[in-house]
Amino acid sequence: MSIVKFSAVTILKAGLFGAIFLVGISGASGQVKPDAPRQGESPAPLSTSPIAPTPGKNPEGVGAAIDPNKYLIGPEDVLFVRTWREVDFTQAVAVRPDGKITMPLIGDLQAAGLTPLQLTVDLKDKLGKYINNPDVTVSVTEVRSKKYFIDGEVGRPGAYPLVSPTNVLEALSIASGFREFAKQNDIRILRGSKSFKFNYKDVIKGKHLEQNIYLENGDHVIVR
Hints:
Elements: H1 2-29, E1 78-83, E2 91-94, E3 100-103, E4 107-110, H2 116-127, E5 136-142, E6 147-152, E7 158-161, H3 168-174, E8 187-191, E9 194-198, H4 200-203, E10 220-223
Parallel strand pairs: 6-10
Antiparallel strand pairs: 1-2, 1-5, 3-4, 6-7, 8-9, 8-10
C-alpha cells in the first residue's frame, strides 16, 4: 500500500515539474502561438502595406492639378463633363485622335487645342439651345496626350504625364533619383533630332543653370 502511495506522489511531482518546465520555455521565447480560429470564425486578417502607384498614373485623378486656364487639351486625354442636375450630359469622354469629343444632342465638338475653361464655355453655349442656363464644368481626369520619358539609371524609369511645366531637375526627383552607378554629370535630353546636356552635380551647386530646361512633350531623359 505504501509503495502505491509513493508512486502516486512521485508521479504528481513529476507532472508538476514538467508543467513548470514548459511554462519556463514559453516565457523565455517571448512568443505565443495564436489560437486557431473556431469553427465559423474567419482567421485574423494579415497586415498589408500600401502599394506604390504606377509611374505616370495618379489613382486620385489629375484634374485638381491641371490649370483649367492654361492646360491645352490633346488627343487621347480623358475628360469629365459635369452638367448640374443633367445626368444625360454628365459623363467621361475621351478625346479622339482627330481632337474631337461627342456629346448627346450636340454631336462632335472640337476639344484638342482648347483649355478646359474654353471648352466649358463652348459646351455651355451649345447646350443652352436645349437646356435653360446649363451649369457645365469640364475637367481633365487623365493626361495621355503629353508625356515625357526617363530611361536608364533612375529609381523609377518610365513614362510620366506632362501635366504642368516640369524641368529636368524636377523630373529626376519624380523618378525617385539616381541608382548607385548613375553618371550624374553626363545626362542627356533627347528632343527629336536635338540633344541637350545636363550635369546634375553642377546644377545642384548653382552652376550652369541654363541646362535645367523645361521638358516638352515626347522628350527622353537618358541617365546612363
